[in-house]
Design brief:
The structure is a homodimer. By secondary structure, the first copy, chain A, is of the alpha+beta class. The first copy, chain A, contains 16 helices and 16 strands. Chain A has an eight-stranded mixed beta sheet with strand order 7-6-5-8-3-2-9-10. In chain A, strands 11, 12, 13, 14, 15 and 16 form a six-stranded mixed beta sheet that branches. In chain A, a hairpin with a 5-residue loop joins strand 5 and strand 6. The interface between A and B is large, with 77 and 77 residues. Strand 1 of chain A pairs antiparallel with strand 4 of chain B.
């Protein structure tokens, strides 16, 4: 007993800063091995670069350079430069040197959300190679370019600025250039990094992306369209996504003196009428001061807001889907299929967050037949490459759950599916942003979108089948035509009808019979010579 | 341009506390939906209860009660009581009211690690139902029982103690009782919660576990053995798992004045000889003061420690595997198979963390045939129920990657595999602790363990096949014996040998021929009457 007592008293507790936590458990953020860390670093920096440009109405020009450090072959310098909005110099130390500090904690669609990604790359580089991050940045309209060299004080979660400087900016450059040195494994990461950049370029055809890799390969993805997609706007929270904590935060920020005003002021899509109807239904006096609600009342208000079924659905202003054209063009570029179809569904919501689901299907052509569909996942325009089988999109397209035969697809088949979930909050399963949780509303929408796209594929395959049958009949007919023509010519020789004319007549009769136009017929018999000569 | 400039200047940054972060992204910790949250709450509280007992040499008595709150049918109170070491009262507010505060940030095998789980349940309950956590605790040997009612100040990540009290403790009770009220979905969580408790009980046959569920069912898992497994001890870090940050921390804590002393003092398995050989190899003066190393030297020292191949492998003192007996007993209890085999591999290491892999195989009996193996995953004695397909264990047992036919298993087959990874750091893919990353060293050990266990299965199946063939031959023989005996009796009637004696002689000859012992023969012909009579 004495010994146990000692144990109990020795049991020591300690607290951790967020940077200590993510330092200890870096693998949950995608920094578990050198190859994965290299991939993840590229992702985080490129996604920040895109979030600094297209979200703010700027056509992106992005350069990614990965270099091997000659003295230490397992160390790599990764540099990403964008022409984005830049960062005000007073924010730079925190934006790069403090975990959980971000401009992205907002209700609008953005690639990043956790305020974690770039800092994880910096932290990982720092603990493995000892190298700080280097940042050059110039906010739009600034006459200066600012330079910083920063480390993270992990125990305190604070930036350490090792060096800083200012340079004149005569050319009016704006944007950010970030450089980190990490322990990496390029040979193992090569394939995924190239695939990631390729798929990113396909999802952002309005961007110029230049990628110089450690092997010296230069890959340039040129802008193919000059129009940016609709920019996502920041929106107010939706009442159905509310909990007690959010309610408290909103009340603290609000100057409203009555519940009625507060609801109209704090939430999206709530006008006077809706607010009055809700308060009446929920049993609240509309003139109550929201700042004076006690915990019980707050709990009730939050619960009633979640339960009320008559709020307007969440706004899609904060969302920016691809649209079917970009998806179809993307699929053609990646897969060179014989058929593509894409569907963009209307906005829906889960827990107060709006989302839009998009699905594209590609079939045949250069797609290799496989026992399962090839799946290309995107979330808020980010390609997702890891943990496919635990993603809600896989659950939906999996032949175990989706009856592909209804759509005339029998595996092994040459079929690929692209999925995109655009949302103010993509419900990732982890902070590494690799797979999306199976939220019922999203799963259902994915299934609906897949059905819609698969119906188009079905039509195409039906049509194709019909044509193949027609072709078969033509072939059979053509095979016997010379014989028949010859016989008829012999029979009719007194009437001086020559074989060729008879052949022509027979073909015309057949075309009429099969209702095939001349053009189509020419296509059908194209390349059939060998068969016909048999 | 003016508008863009405005945008750039408006871009606002903010920082988050860990509790705000995990509040916003609670789904990454397993609190994404009411049903999942209910399951996750049970897990976190039960795992804490076990970590407070068996890890400290106490046979666990654990009670779990889930009650529906009558006024709000979607609210549930979850209470877990243990007979563990208890918590010193001065730690209680932080242990339950501050995210990332824990006694578990140590190098020894424990179920919890993140210092996050119970707090997530408390936080989730608080934001949905407004209810605080209630804690009763008494450290071993304490004359008092302490009571606390606590909320989390999410914006500051600090505990708010709403109430506290002390009671006399005449019976000498020790342990902790925690109660939270959360929004849940029992009908959807029921199956997983029961399965989780069942599998936990199987993994801890030395525990009494009582579970009262909201339907009023009382399930009691009685202790079946009185012996605790070997207790894991806290160990020093292994030099191969070192990075610059850890090195700095160790130096800061160390009183050593030379590099030589520091290495011996700070790392496991490093004696004077090893330390000298390493420093010589790495090119460091052994008399250098570790506190005076600059960043370049630190980077070099950390890198060389990682690269040196001649350190002793990490110690397994910190680990506590199941052992083959517990695994085999567990598989028999869960699956009622006809055959089981289990393997506990020797300790190995990845990145300075020791680990032990165990694999059990069960075959036939009441296991239903399936196109894939049934997989039961454990990590540090926790059953893992979600995200199976993204777990390294699935990757290893997947018939696409493992050639089961080599071991005479052809799918569909009635086969189940249990895997256990015990480690000072299980490389979970997420903070929800649901799937393990495919660290190459662990993957390889799992594969070796599976092969080893599968070879035993193969032997069994070979033996079974042999016996079936023997049985077939016996049947064939037995079928004709009466006929032959009759004929022989007729032929030999002058020698007055009766039919029965001839039959006996024939049987004896056959047994000799087939080399079957009497006992085995009896077993083979058991129930064959019908066939023989044909």
């Amino acid at each position: 007993m004495a010994k146990r007592q000692q144990v109990a008293q020795q049991e020591s507790f300690r607290s951790m800063t967020p940077s200590q936590f993510f330092y200890e458990y870096r693998e949950v953020a995608g920094f578990g091995s050198p190859s994965r860390a290299l991939y993840q670093t590229v992702r985080e920096l490129v996604e920040n670069a895109l979030d600094a440009t297209d979200v703010h109405g700027i056509l992106p020009d992005i350069t990614l350079v990965i270099e091997q450090i000659p003295e230490h072959p397992s160390y790599y310098r990764i540099t990403v430069e964008d022409n984005g909005i830049g960062i005000q110099p007073q924010h730079v130390p925190y934006a790069f040197g403090q975990v959980l500090y971000s401009s992205k904690y907002k209700l609008r669609q953005a690639r990043g959300r956790f305020g974690l990604g770039a800092k994880m790359a910096i932290l990982y580089g720092q603990i493995k190679t000892g190298q700080p991050v280097e940042v050059y940045t110039s906010p739009i309209g600034s006459s200066k370019i600012y330079f910083f060299r920063i480390k993270i004080d992990i125990e305190r979660n604070k930036p350490i600025v090792l060096a800083k400087g200012e340079y004149p900016n005569p050319s009016g450059w704006h944007g950010t250039r970030v450089s980190v040195v990490i322990e990496g494994d390029w040979p193992r990461a090569r394939h995924r990094v190239h695939e990631y950049i390729r798929r990113t370029a396909i999802a952002a055809p309005y961007a110029n992306i230049t990628f110089i890799d450690p092997d010296g390969n230069i890959t340039v993805y040129h802008r193919t369209i000059d129009k940016l997609p609709k920019q996502p706007r920041e929106v107010k929270p939706h009442p159905q996504g509310v909990d007690i904590e959010l309610l408290k935060q909103l009340i603290r920020k609000s100057k409203a003196t009555t519940l009625l005003e507060f609801l109209i002021d704090a939430f999206q899509g709530v006008g006077r009428k809706t607010a009055e109807a809700f308060l009446d239904w929920a049993g609240f006096d509309k003139n109550l001061d929201p700042h004076k609600l006690d915990d019980r009342k707050l709990e009730k208000l939050a619960r009633k807001l979640r339960e009320y079924q008559r709020f307007r659905p969440p706004s899609a202003d904060a969302l920016s889907p691809f649209g079917p054209e970009i998806i179809e063009a993307g699929l053609r570029t990646i897969l060179k299929p014989e058929f593509v179809a894409a569907v963009t569904r209307r906005p829906r919501a889960y827990e107060g967050h709006s989302f839009i689901v998009e699905v594209g299907i590609a079939y045949g052509g250069q797609i290799p037949p496989s026992s399962e569909p090839i799946l290309l996942r995107y979330a808020n325009k980010i390609p997702l490459l890891y943990d496919e089988k635990s993603d809600v999109a896989w659950k939906v397209v999996d032949p175990k759950n989706f009856d592909w035969r209804n759509y005339l697809v029998v595996f092994p088949a040459p079929v690929a599916v692209l999925t995109h979930i655009a949302s103010t909050k993509v419900p990732y399963k982890g902070v590494g942003k690799e797979s999306v949780a199976d939220v019922p509303e999203i799963e259902q929408e994915l299934r609906n979108a897949l059905r819609e796209a698969a119906r188009k594929l079905r039509e195409y395959l039906l049509q194709k089948k019909k044509e193949e049958e027609a072709k078969k009949r033509v072939i059979t007919f053509m095979k016997y035509t010379p014989e028949i023509a010859k016989s008829l010519a012999t029979i009719l020789k007194d009437y001086s009808v020559d074989e060729n004319s008879i052949r022509e007549m027979l073909l015309t009769a057949m075309k009429k019979r099969l209702r095939i136009e001349d053009e189509k017929f020419a296509k059908l018999v194209e390349g059939l010579e060998v068969n016909i000569e048999e």
